[in-house]
């Protein structure tokens, strides 16, 4: 009956139903007719009709279904839907939904509308109850948990909310709102990290969650992660540009970030952040003009800006232009002033909006105080402004009288000491552990000169909060004034204060203390004073101290600039004792100008000063010095004279420095005699200082007659410290060098003195290095090795003492000083200089270390080139070394240093050119070799050195067989002459090698003349020369005379094994040619000597000896000596002949049946020969022997 | 934060070790430690046991600097004779050889993207920038001379550039000189910006904070470590405590600490919040020429590592936590 009308075909036709559904429907109705009380059937039909939007009819079916089966929640749900949406009967809807939920608590579709309805009616408690019930019945009723969670959040029941929300999230893990709500709950519970995580998840799920972004930004700010907070706020603003909380948060975050920067001292950085923040805050405040806290924030930002805005200018441009300086200061001040003004206005707006907020009153008070201090006519409206500040702070107190911070504010801002004290004490009564209040109270007591009280109060403040800057600063100021403790202690406390709070006053104080305690060059002070200048550019003291710090860091030019600025600042300022300040600053200026080498400017300054009044001792010194610099010697002397006349009235410390200054000045202007006579005239009791002692000793050292001997010995009593004494010894040693008055240095006595002194001060590197240098300088045989041994390389001196030789230099130079080539690697050559052992490769490494430490050190680079050349020579100039060396030399040559005209640099240039030439020669590049050598020969140097350039050219032309040029260069060499023995020896060698028919007597006589000059090594050099002569004769096949020369050489230098080897070899050759037994015995004698003398086995000696002994018929000895030869060679260098000799020995064994197991027996003679052939297949002799052996 | 010694290799090289850096991890291997030494070799070490992976030879003088590409596949080493050798970390194949006059190559650094290799130009008072794909010199950033027309003096050698550093965003390039000044350049426009003052002795090492492109740390022979606001030209912090030259500085990947090595033979760890030295390691017996934090990445991301090298020929590895 019910569904009849619906069943017409027309009604169905517009519905887009599949024919199957059709049949389903028809089927359903058919079945309904069969069993009309089937609840589920009614429900199905209801659902069908509901879906076809025939709600009324559907509802009838649902009612029937519900009646028939009251346990079916679904039908109640749809009924609920019907009443709610169609018939708008809320009460019934509620009941139906309630029923549905009770039957099936998991039913989201009825739970949600139920709660919505309750919500609409404002029945919150009922809503909560429903959700609670559902959630308690079924843990899967996630909708209920969710609803409950939101409701609890709404009711601010945070901890319950967290539980519900967590449960709900299990059901809806991707619901961003739930995460957001959870985040909020956590945040309110103070669990910030959990909150941040939840918010983060919400943002991950939905990147438009502004609330989550803003709140996580707020949390970041709370946690002090300002940077992160700022980023989050920026993100939020990208989504929603007008979001006020985000704007507020962003501005606040930037302000906090800026505060961090300012606390570090990065004012410019802070200012730029504040500008950004101010922009954000201003925009926000202007679009929503009625939010008090935004105005307050804007004001806070402006106030911070007014405080931190740094004065940054290109000082060089302001230096000479007072007006520009003044304008720049004014514009800086104006910027700050305007910012403070803006702050004040914004505070007022904020106050206007919420006049009950007491802290804004106190903010205005602080701001007006700042404005007062910034305003130009400081004095005039001081009282009026002060009154304003005082009044406003009282206003704050009237609103919140129990707030101790306002009491402290009043205590600081009021102008009346009594009121201040009262306010601070009230503050302390409210909170006794208020360190700030204690601190200000202390400051107040200091102001009224109650030192005892002040100290007690400060101590209390410090013990409550050691992180408060003020007590530290006051303590240092106090200890500085009272001069009780060392300046170091005051400096320490002040530096702590500055570290805690970079206030300009503290920083200036720190610099002053640094001046007293000698910390002026420390970088902490440099940073502090730089920041102080940025904050108080109008204060002359800051510029002056900046100048002093620069001077301490040896930057005189900028120091002068800052002094000038300080002077401008004084003249702009309105302080009473202007003149005395200007005077002090001008003396500083003159001093730094003269130190910077600008004598004329310094002089100008001094003369200006002099016009205004008599100069004090420092002024006189600077004046005299700059006069001297400027070349006006007479005037300088007269100024020094007036300084001397003041001596008696000076303090002890300045007496010493004045005496030193006068003596030095007189020495430089008038010379030695004048200074000595003036010193003798001075009263002796003035000389009681170590400083004077050094100057006197230095002057006395220059004086050959020792006129100041008495004075010097009396002043030496004032040397106290070990270091001073050792330096004095160093000075005495230097004195010994110059004492004899002649042109050349008296090195021998210097060395002798240093040797003794070093015995007393074995730790003095200064002396060690000087001794090493002198030893190298003396050019004695073997001294090079002694020099390297006496210098200590383990603790290289880090200090940068210009002009003094370092241990590196000595080692590097010592390594190249040895004439004999040879190293400890017998792969390349046989070491002939036993003492040298392994110093050479070490020198190269230590020089590299030195270059690595001081890459600008050209001495080390130069020495490295020389050492490398030595190394290359030892290794017979391998390609890769030559290439490196070439690069090093070319780079060194391109250095502008070597184009200076000083002899020292010219000499190095010369040496480098010769090195370059040698390398080109070894690489076969003759042209560049000749150009380099020619370049070297054209340098302006003493003939003594130039000789070697021509010698090199000689070699080259001789190699190229260019006789004409050779003759020319050879003649030039003879003409130039040299002091160096080795030069003559080389020339002599060349003469015979290239078979020149020249009058060799010229060389002989020159050489003899040359070696006469130094006695000690005469024998050695003569021996070498004789050897060369012998070699020359050998070339001419005159063996007998050669033998004579070499024998002579042996007798002169009886310790040199090489000479004996040479002699032995010549004798053997004579024996072979002339068969005279006379020479045989000589040969044996010499060769045995070789054995005895040489520390390292010398090759050939044994083989020759064996031959000689064999010729005498002593087979046993022959055998033994020959065997030795095998071991004299290192494996890489054994020539074929040695293998061949071993074959002889092995054959001997075969015949003689020896049982000794030795090297030669390890292989058969025939194998030895094969090995010999393998080494040298071109020798027919070996082949023949092999053939014989094979037969 | 704290350092704990993990491993130390004595005689890791035959002579003084001068340079150290980490080659970041690649897909196929964990990070490697690269060291350069006076013995003319560069050695590669596997962390944490410091197993010698390979020894690269080929330099004619001591190796003064090593640098690794941010991707970890390429590295460069330079020696005192001013050859820069660029090589493949895994195969040791030479990729390029860059040549400059001796004394005109000192420290090197790749930019954060790896497109440019910046080489401190030593005596040339400049930084040379090399393109890392063509290996051609793309720019030379010269420090303008402060002194006016005074060609004499040793002014040329005064500005010897020792160290170079890239800001984490790659926009700024700073270099430290022998006279103590630090020069900041705009790396994108190749323009000199300004000097940072405060040191008065050579600045041997520079590093930017990984988080803040404004914060720059410098180590100098005057014994101080400075913290600069490199944009605002302000000295914002000094850390003193070393008894001698500070030779090297590196900042931890989390930006919370720096490590320094010094001629006083110690390695110090500094807490940047407290701005104080929190630990001193004195296991080296000679001056410490290099410290390097391991960059994040690879398998064990969490554990921080610090390596230090010294004149005593040894390498030390520490755990940083």
UniProtKB/TrEMBL annotation, chain A:
<dbReference type="GO" id="GO:0055087">
    <property type="term" value="C:Ski complex"/>
</dbReference>
<dbReference type="InterPro" id="IPR011990">
    <property type="entry name" value="TPR-like_helical_dom_sf"/>
</dbReference>
<keyword id="KW-0802">TPR repeat</keyword>
<dbReference type="InterPro" id="IPR039226">
    <property type="entry name" value="Ski3/TTC37"/>
</dbReference>
<dbReference type="GO" id="GO:0006401">
    <property type="term" value="P:RNA catabolic process"/>
</dbReference>
<dbReference type="InterPro" id="IPR019734">
    <property type="entry name" value="TPR_rpt"/>
</dbReference>
<dbReference type="Pfam" id="PF13181">
    <property type="entry name" value="TPR_8"/>
</dbReference>
<protein>
    <recommendedName>
        <fullName>Tetratricopeptide repeat protein SKI3</fullName>
    </recommendedName>
</protein>
<keyword id="KW-0677">Repeat</keyword>
UniProtKB/TrEMBL annotation, chain B:
<feature type="repeat" description="WD">
    <location>
        <begin position="239"/>
        <end position="280"/>
    </location>
</feature>
<protein>
    <recommendedName>
        <fullName>Anaphase-promoting complex subunit 4 WD40 domain-containing protein</fullName>
    </recommendedName>
</protein>
<dbReference type="InterPro" id="IPR036322">
    <property type="entry name" value="WD40_repeat_dom_sf"/>
</dbReference>
<feature type="repeat" description="WD">
    <location>
        <begin position="10"/>
        <end position="46"/>
    </location>
</feature>
<feature type="repeat" description="WD">
    <location>
        <begin position="154"/>
        <end position="195"/>
    </location>
</feature>
<keyword id="KW-0677">Repeat</keyword>
<keyword id="KW-0853">WD repeat</keyword>
<dbReference type="InterPro" id="IPR051510">
    <property type="entry name" value="SKI8"/>
</dbReference>
<feature type="repeat" description="WD">
    <location>
        <begin position="196"/>
        <end position="238"/>
    </location>
</feature>
<feature type="repeat" description="WD">
    <location>
        <begin position="56"/>
        <end position="97"/>
    </location>
</feature>
<dbReference type="InterPro" id="IPR020472">
    <property type="entry name" value="WD40_PAC1"/>
</dbReference>
<dbReference type="InterPro" id="IPR001680">
    <property type="entry name" value="WD40_rpt"/>
</dbReference>
<dbReference type="Pfam" id="PF00400">
    <property type="entry name" value="WD40"/>
</dbReference>
<dbReference type="GO" id="GO:0016593">
    <property type="term" value="C:Cdc73/Paf1 complex"/>
</dbReference>
<dbReference type="InterPro" id="IPR019775">
    <property type="entry name" value="WD40_repeat_CS"/>
</dbReference>
<dbReference type="InterPro" id="IPR015943">
    <property type="entry name" value="WD40/YVTN_repeat-like_dom_sf"/>
</dbReference>
